[in-house]
Design brief:
9 helices; 57% helix
Amino acid sequence: MKRCSCCRRDLAESRYSPDWRVPLGLQSRCKECRAADQRRYYALHAEEVRARARAVYAANPEPIRAEARRYANSHRAERAANRLKWGQLNRDYLLDYMAGWRATNRVKTRFYSRQYDHRRRSNGLTDLTFDAWSGRLKEFGDRCAYCATTARLEMDHITSVAKGGTHTLDNVVPACQPCNRTKRDKAMLVFLFEKAAAI
């Protein structure tokens, strides 16, 4: 047991943060008191604290990213529980935020809504990101790969995922809805021959 120098309570040593500079190796104030002080300080000096944090990150980006990854990997369950708890406590805010984001990011919304299904059906073989897909659209001039229309474009797998194709950048092209629905799981060359014969 150790007495907190701030709230004067006798608490278990686990309620104190370590401090190698003192003989006992523990800080004099308990974690609760230190957290309360930090909140008060931040409320009074928010801009100053943020500016210092940005400066530290700008000077040491790689070590900070590495430590963040290490912490995230070693606290997966705890972080998942915290996210779930926060979502339950802020459900209305979260729903409003998500609705607003979807309304202003319709292309990204369509992309991400299909990602899970494509990844599941392609056994996790995917390297496709939204930025990569955007680059692919630009390669085709934001036109359908099969008929060159600029109508609403979808993602088509050159080799269908249902027939073993991967959800990767080298296996996708933009296609308008009619072409994508007509092609279905056909091979690209078969579909193009059929399309040419129908003209």
